[in-house]
């Protein structure tokens, strides 16, 4: 299996997703592409503040934008999320394997008195 993730990508993705507003924006975009105005509706913050969060998301590669006329539509870029998900999956497989080995060891070395 080819690993698509790099330390830089993972640092960017997890750093960006550490902010609850950005996670909420990603959740909104999971429903489909949206304009800044639509994305700002559930938040009690200014449009410039939402735009700053979107710039951070765009810079990290988590979100992309397309222009149509005077509107900018934001959407999720799954490649960055897929890389982070692959890293987490690999980590989960490692720990599952380690715990299975520990369980076998304990079963083999337990005494039934």
Automatic annotation (TrEMBL):
Keywords: DNA-binding
Domain HTH arsR-type: 2-96
UniProt-recorded Gene Ontology molecular function terms: DNA binding; DNA-binding transcription factor activity
Top-rank taxon: Bacteria
Pfam hit, one: HTH_5
Database matches in SUPFAM superfamilies: Winged helix' DNA-binding domain (SSF46785)
Protein name: Winged helix-turn-helix transcriptional regulator
């Amino acid at each position: 299996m080819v690993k698509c993730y790099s330390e830089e990508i993972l640092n960017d993705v997890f750093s960006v997703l550490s902010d609850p507003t950005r996670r909420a924006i990603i959740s909104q975009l999971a429903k489909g592409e949206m304009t800044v105005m639509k994305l700002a509706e559930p938040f009690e913050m200014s449009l410039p503040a939402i735009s700053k969060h979107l710039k951070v998301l765009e810079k990290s590669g988590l979100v992309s934008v397309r222009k149509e006329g005077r509107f900018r539509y934001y959407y999720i870029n799954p490649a960055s999320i897929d890389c982070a998900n692959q890293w987490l999956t690999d980590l989960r497989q490692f720990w599952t394997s380690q715990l299975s080995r520990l369980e076998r060891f304990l079963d083999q070395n337990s005494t039934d008195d």
